[in-house]
Automatic annotation (TrEMBL):
It comes from Cirrhinus mrigala. It comes from the Eukaryota. It holds the Pfam family Plexin_RBD. Residues 2-53 form the Plexin cytoplasmic RhoGTPase-binding domain. This is Plexin cytoplasmic RhoGTPase-binding domain-containing protein. Coiled coil: none annotated.
Amino acid sequence: ILNCVNPENENSPEIPVKVLNCDTITQVKEKILDAVYKNMPYSQRPKAVDMDL
């Protein structure tokens, strides 16, 4: 489990994201984006390729 914080609001609570040992970096980024931006339409959220870990 990876605990993430919304970069737009660092005071928000941490969001747990379940990642697997075999996940690629892109898969981990997508899972993080899915968790952090779950209430935002897919077309309006950042793309995985634009994010850094």
